[in-house]
Amino acid sequence: MRRIHPAWRVAGATFVVLLVAAAIRATAGVLIVPFEREFGWSRATISAAISVNLLLYGLMGPFCAAIADRIGVRRTMAIAMSILAGALLLASAIKSPWHLVLLWGVLVGMGTGMAALVLGAVVVTRWFSARRGLVMGALTASTATGQLLFLPLLARVVETDGWRSAVRIVALAALATVALAILLVRESPAALGVAPYGATVIAAPPARSGNPARVAVLTLFRAARSEDFWLLALTFFICGASTNGLIGTHLIPACVDHGIPEVRAAGLLATMGIFDMFGTTLSGWLSDRWDNRRLLFTYYGLRGLSLMFLPQALIGGSGLLVFAVFYGLDWIATVPPTVRLATESFGKEDGPIVFGWVVAAHQVGAGVAALGAGFIRTELGDYQAAFFAAGALCLVAALLALAVGRIKLAPWRTAQSQT
User: Fold this and answer.
1) Would you state the torsion angle of the CA atoms of residues 59, 149, 301, 308, taken in this order, to the nearest 10 degrees?
2) How many Å apart are CA 21 and CA 174, to the nearest integer?
3) Torsion over CA of 67, 69, 73 and 77, rounded to 10 degrees?
4) Which residue in 13, 93, 366, 368 has the fewest CB atoms around it within 10 Å?
5) Cα–Cα distance between 288 and 291 in angstroms, integer?
6) Among candidates 312, 298, 318, which has minimal Cα distance to 387?
7) Whole-number Å distance between alpha carbons of 404 and 230
8) Burial grade of 39 (CB within 10 A; 0-12, 13-18, 19 or more)
9) Is 227:411 a contact under the CB 8 Å cutoff?
């Protein structure tokens, strides 16, 4: 019987860690209305804390890749999930907005940033020579699976036992993944005496020297000289604004505004998760075979149209399932093509760190949208303007994606040789 390559075991453990981290990030969506009812805080106040969370989640990405190079993927996962478990347990006792900003905004933001897709990109780059797009698609889909498994449960728990019980559930899930990472994750194929999946040569990953923060910042300075970096960062900024920041944070409150119960609204996000799991995995498979620029053009264009349809779907209610399917297939299908374009443009060694900075742009967009949509709802009484603005931005991102990699002279190569 042919032995299963250990890369699949590491990828499986990483999938679970990313799944739980994604579930923790998504939990904010079911907490907005309970916080509003219990504490009397406005949507803008609550959204400010969530915005800090999303921003730090993104800013931790490039440093996470550098830290993983320095102390190891396994330790990085264990530390991240331990931070999340502690912060969530403390968050169950919050009393004032600054508690929410410190615990949910700062600590949960940092913890989820350390256990994010950037870490998945490091694992894929180290452990796989073949099937990279497929595996990255599956790891990306873990965020959808996290919503699928946890959101309806958490919404039901909030309804029956209160929001504190829901927070404690995800805290316990975070603790369980600490043990999983320690038991199953190894640093590289060379540590086990095997070649990466699809390769024949055993080679240890290049050792990083210097402070991880300095490595991450210097990589940013080099990448910033490339037009491709700015194109990827800007399109991913729009990606974050139109997903985590807007829909991930505000769809459930928007549904409640239109008389749709929280549990049903959470089920809607879970439905998106089901279709995104298939859509993103398929996107990874396609990214190994098709032009990644055209894939991004298609994804952003379809997302823009679906967001412009959402206000009408909310008014009638009957079109929400259509929106969930249409939008869900495209939720984070942009990640595998973006990872592949970053690796092609900046190389295997620096690609994960550059992708980390691109993810940082993603979360800056998410933070801006989370806060902006909260203010729009507070000032105008609904989210319609926020949905239309995000849809228009997605159409802009579709056009920008076509320009990635079109310049023959890559400034990155010149800059890299000078450092």
Assistant:
1) -100
2) 7
3) 10
4) 93
5) 9
6) 312
7) 9
8) middle
9) yes
CATH code for position 236: 1.20.1250.20
Domain residues for 279?
6-417
Alpha helix stretches (DSSP H) within 317-381: 320-328, 335-380
Q: Assign 197 to helix, strand or coil.
A: strand
Q: Cα separation of 111 and 96, whole Å? A: 21
DSSP one-letter code for 186: -
**Which of these, 150, 281, 128, lies nearest to 199 by C-alpha position?**
128
On whether residue 1 sits in a domain, the answer given is no
CA pair distance 276, 139, nearest whole angstrom: 12
Q: Which amino acid is at 250?
A: H
**Which value, in Å, is the radius of gyration of the alpha carbons in the chain?**
20
Rounded CA-CA distance 262/256 in Å is: 6
Residue 64 located in a structural domain: yes
The answer to whether residue 181 is domain-embedded is yes
Domain count, the chain: 1
Q: Is the pLDDT of residue 297 over 90?
A: yes
Q: What is the DSSP letter of 131?
A: S
CB-CB contact of 350 with 221 (8 Å): no
- Is 122 inside a domain boundary? yes
Looking at the DSSP assignment, which residues form a beta bridge with residue 197? 128
Encode pLDDT of 14-72 as tens digits.
999 988 988 888 788 788 888 988 888 888 888 888 888 888 887 787 777 777 777 88
pLDDT tens readout for residues 216-275: 788 888 888 888 899 999 999 999 899 878 988 888 888 888 888 878 887 887 788 788
Average pLDDT over residues 330-346: 82
SS3 128: strand
Q: Which residues of 389-419 are buried (b: 16+ CB within 10 A; e: fewer)?
A: bbbebbbebbebbeebbeeeebbbeeebeee
